[in-house]
Every structure is written in C-alpha cells, then in structure tokens.
Fold:
Amino acid sequence: MNPEYHFDGQVLCVTGGGRGIGLAIARAFARAGARVCINDLAAERAQAAVAALQDEGLSAIAHVGDVGDEQDVRALFAAIDQQWGRIDILVNNAGIEPVHSILDHPLSDWQRTLDTNLTGTFLCTQQAAQRMREQGGGVILNIASIAGKSQPLYLRSAYAASKAGQVGFTKEAARELAAYGIRVNAVCPGVIITPMTERLRNDEAQMQRWRADIPLRRLGTAEEVAALCLWLASDAASYVTGAAWHVDGGKNMA
Ligand code: NDP
Structure:
C-alpha cells in the first residue's frame, strides 16, 4: 500500500497508536520507511502493536503514557531523543469519546476528554515543535473529527468541543510554527471502522441513516485516514499548512 511515499530515516511519533486509526498510521509510515514510536495508555496494546510491526521487519518502539499528563509527555519525547535523537512527524491521534447528555454530563468526563483530546495535542505539539525548530522543520498532524469542523454528532458535547479546539489550535500552530519550517494540519475523519465506533456501528438503524447521507455510501477505514496523513506529511504537500481536511466519503463538503 502507498508505495509512492518515502519517509526513509524519518522519525514519527503517533499517540494512541496501539489500535485503530493510530495503528494504521504507524504501519503506513513504517512501511514507507519511517522509524515509529507508538504511544498508548495500555502497555500490552502498545507492545503488541510494536511487535506486529517488528514482525514485518519494520522499525518501531513503544512508549506507555497519558498524553494529558505533562510528565508522561516529557518522558515520551525523552525516550524518542534517546532512541533516535530526532522527531520529524508528530501525529496527535489519542482520543476518547464519552457519550452523555449535556444535562447531566459528569464534569470528570468533560475534563478527561479535554485533557486527552485537546491538552494532549498541545503538550505533544510543544515538545515536538521545540525539537523540530532545532532541526529546521517538521510536520504535525492533528486527528480531529468532522465533529470539530462541520458535523454535530449527538450526546458528544465534550468530544465536539475538544475537536473544534484541535482545529482552532491547528490554525494557530500553523501560523506560529511556519517560521521554523513546521507545517501543521488537521485531519477530520467521518465514521471510521475502529473499536471507537463499535457501539455506533452495532446500531443498524442508525447506520442505515448515516450511510444514506454519505455520498460514497460506506464507512471509512483506518487505512484511508492513514493515506491522507501520508500525503500531508510528504513533500507533495509542502505548500499545505493550517487546513482541516475531511476524510468522510463526501459527507461534509464545506
Ligand atoms: P480507538 O479508541 O480505537 O483508539 C484510540 C487509542 O488511543 C486507544 O488505544 C486508547 O486507549 C488511546 N488513548 C486514549 N486516551 C489516551 C491517552 N490519554 N493517552 C494515550 N493514549 C490514549 O480510536 P480511533 O482509532 O477510532 O480514533 C483515533 C482518533 O481519531 C481519535 O482522536 C478519534 O477522536 C479520531 N476520530 C475517530 C473517528 C472514528 O470514526 N473512529 C472519527 C473521527 C475522529 P484506551 O482504549 O485505553 O483509552
């Protein structure tokens, strides 16, 4: 897959990369020659993901930590420094999606969602950008959502707020970090087949309504999100920064 991309020798860090979209991104970049650090909360998941890549002869390490915790994030980038001494591509992918009505949304879940999805993006961007500035450039991709750009979901207010925050942060970061040769873009997937959407996908009535509203008439795959990331991180996208890209089968065209 994607044989036209070459990231030989480049170092990529993907957060929440133990499964789903993050794992597909890690695999796609590793197959294109990158050395990959997979962060995740769950040690076994991160290690299993790395083992799967290593079985293919690909270069990968695992790092366990919470992207919403500053000390964990510092440790993540210190581990990358120690292993490879550089960071070329950061993918802020770790995310959670609690489902609650606003009327009785627990504050703890609201805060945990913002900490993971938004503050995690800031903390990792800060560490990566400090290093990329020294290196003379880099690429940062924020896996946001259609929920943060153009498509209200339902009972996911903290998620939508955090994802809209990621889109706003992407523009601000792109503006500020361009001076250092760092490009920053957001990726806004529609409904993608991963563990996160399992409950939604099991609701056949709702799925029929969703599919009917998607011009391509199907859900997306994690590999299709990874394919957009490959392009955005490549030199083919060298003039592209500060944008939020739908990958949603045409559901949102604005
Ligand atoms: P998954 O739930 O399948 O995978 C997310 C991974 O991130 C899990 O392994 C999860 O671990 C990990 N994670 C959660 N919190 C943290 C944290 N604080 N620090 C480090 N890792 C963490 O999700 P997807 O692959 O579906 O989604 C990936 C990203 O794409 C998310 O940001 C999501 O919002 C976004 N997205 C997904 C869509 C979809 O349809 N799937 C649509 C639009 C956007 P654990 O399970 O232990 O929490």
Summary: The radius of gyration is 17 Å. Strands lie at 11-14, 35-40, 60-64, 89-92, 138-143, 182-189, 244-247. The CA atoms of residues 12 and 89 lie 5 Å apart.
